[in-house]
Amino acid sequence: MAIEIEDKFDVPPDFTIPDLATVPGCAEAVELVSHRLVAVYFDTADLRLAARGITLRRRRGGEDAGWHLKLPKAKGVRNEITHPLTRSAKIVPRELAELVRAQTRGEPLVPVAELETVRKVTSLRDPEGRQLLEVADDNVKGTVFGEERHVERWREVEAELTGGDPKLLRRVGKALRKAGATPAGSQSKLTRLLGDRIPGTPRVEAEEGTAGRVVLDYLRSQVEALTAQDPQVRQAEEDAVHKMRVASRRLRSALKSFSGVVAETSALQDELKWIANVLGEVRDLEVIRERFAGLLDGLDAELISGPVRTRLGDDLAGREREAYGRARQAMSGERYYALLDRLDTLLVSPPLTPLAAKKADKVLRPVADKSWDRVVKAYDRAQAIEDTEQREIAMHDVRKAAKRARYTAEALESLLPELSSEVATRAKAVQEVLGLYQDGVVAQQILLEEAGRARDAGEDTFTYGVLIGIEHTTATRAHEDFPDVWSKVTKNT
C-alpha cells in the first residue's frame, strides 16, 4: 500500500508550465517521456464507490500500468493499493474486490467509465538527482459508459510528492497558481467526468446546539471510523481490528446511552455486538500472543526451556490467522451487509425523539451523570454478593459499565469538556485496573491449556509454570489495588 500526497489543479487549454527549477528546494526540473494512459474504471451500476470517494481502475500505459484502488484517508492523502495487470480486462482481481465489499455489499463491479490521458511529466530533483516531486500535465478524454454514451475533454495538472518535503509541494502549488492554475474543482478525474451522476450522500442535519445534532455527529463519526477500517482489517493491517472493534463498541454504547434521543435501535445494537465479538476473537489472540512474547523476552535465558516460544508464538499466530479467516468470511456475508445498511439508514433516517430538538446541554448532561451512577450501582450489586466466585463474575459487569461510561463521556467531550474529562478519567481508572485483573486470569487459563498440549507432546513445561506465576502475580496485584482505585474515583462523588 502506498500513500499519495498530491495537489490537483484545473488549467486552461493554453496553459504553460512555469520554470519549476527556480522553486526553492529544487535543484533541477527534468521533462520526462510523454505517456498515453488508458484507464477503465470499475464500480457498481449505481456508483457506490464513487459516492464514497473510492476509485478502482485498470490502467494501461506509463510506468505504473496495472490495477489501482484508491481509498480516502485524509485531505490530500489517499491510500493506494496496486495489483499487476491481469489477463481479463473486465473482471476485477479478487484481492481488490474484497477491499471494497463494505461499499459494494455483494453487487457486481462493472466498467463505468474510461479516461484516456496524454501525460507530460516534469521531475523535480535534488542536487544528487533524486526525484522529490513529479508534476503531470494531462490532456484528458473521458467517456462515460451506459445507455447514453458521454464524452468530455479537458486539461489538468497534478503535483505529487515522491520524496521531498511537503513544503516543496506547497511552493510548487504556489508557482502553478501564479501561472494561472486554479485548485481542482473535483477530487479526481473520474469525479469530474461523472459529475452529478454520482449519487449524493443524504445527511440529516439537526439544528445546531440541539441534542440531536450532537448525537448524530458522533454516530456519523463512528460509522465512518468503522467502515474506514474495513479494508485494513481484510489486509490484517496493524491495529486495524482493534480500531474497528472499538468503533463498533462506541456505536453500541452511544445507542444505549442516548436512547432518549435516538430510539428503536435495540436490533442494531445486537448486530454491533455481533461484529465486535467476531473481531474480538482475532484481537484477543493478537493481544495474548504479543503479551506472551513480551514476558518471554523479559525472562532470563535459563528460565526458558523447551519449544515454548514456538508454541506461544507460532501456534498462537496460526490460531490468529484462522480467526482472521473467520472474520473475513463474516464480513463478506449478508449479515454484515445488512448491518452496514442499517447504519446507513440510521444516519439518513434517524428515529429521533422529541428530546432531539431540545438544547444539548439540558438533555445530555444528565446522561453523562447517569453513566457514572450505573458504574456505582454495578459495584454495589457485586459487593452485596456473598459467594466469591459469583462476586468476581459480577465485577466484570462493573468493568463493562465503566467502559460504557467512558465512551459516553468521550462522546460528549466537545459539549461538556469538564464533566466529560472527569467521568472519563474515573471510568478509565476503573476499567484499566479491572482489565489488568481479567487479562491476568484469562492469560493463566490459556497458559494452562498450552502447557497441557506441551505435556501431551512430551515437552518441558517448566517455563509455563514461570509465566503462570507472573500472570497470577499481575492479577493478584490488580485485585489488591482495586479498593484504593475505587476509593479515589468515588471520593467527593
Structural account:
It is a single chain. By secondary structure, the protein is of the alpha+beta class. It has 3 domains: 2-197, Hypothetical Protein Pfu-838710-001 (Beta Barrel), CATH 2.40.320.10; 203-358, CHAD domain; 359-493. Helix content is 53%, strand content 18%. The protein contains 14 helices and 10 strands. The protein has helices at 48-51, 94-99, 101-104, 166-178, 189-194, 211-234, 240-257, 266-297, 308-330, 334-348, 360-383, 388-411, 417-456, 462-489, and strands spanning 2-10, 28-31, 35-43, 55-60, 66-74, 77-83, 110-125, 131-144, 150-161, 182-183. It has an 8-stranded antiparallel barrel with strand order 1-6-5-4-3-7-8-9. Helix 11 runs antiparallel to helix 12 and helix 12 packs across helix 13. It is globular and about 85 Å long.
Which helices and strands occur, and which strands form pairs?
Elements: E1 2-10, E2 28-31, E3 35-43, H1 48-51, E4 55-60, E5 66-74, E6 77-83, H2 94-99, H3 101-104, E7 110-125, E8 131-144, E9 150-161, H4 166-178, E10 182-183, H5 189-194, H6 211-234, H7 240-257, H8 266-297, H9 308-330, H10 334-348, H11 360-383, H12 388-411, H13 417-456, H14 462-489
Helix content: 40-55%
Order of helices and strands: EEEHEEEHHEEEHEHHHHHHHHHH
Major sheet size, sense and barrel closure: 8 strands, antiparallel, barrel
Radius of gyration: 28 Å
Please name the CATH architecture of the largest domain.
Beta Barrel
Q: How far apart are the termini?
A: 50 Å
Give the DSSP E fraction (strand runs of 2 or more residues).
Answer: 15-25%
- What's the CATH topology name of the largest domain? Hypothetical Protein Pfu-838710-001
Structural class: alpha+beta
CATH homology-level superfamily of the largest domain: Hypothetical Protein Pfu-838710-001
Give the averaged pLDDT, no decimals: 93
Per DSSP, the total helix count is 14
Strand order of the largest sheet: 1-6-5-4-3-7-8-9
Q: What would you call the shape?
A: globular
Name the CATH class of the largest domain. Mainly Beta
What low-confidence regions span 5 or more consecutive residues with pLDDT below 50? Answer: none
DSSP strand count: 10
Number of domains: 3
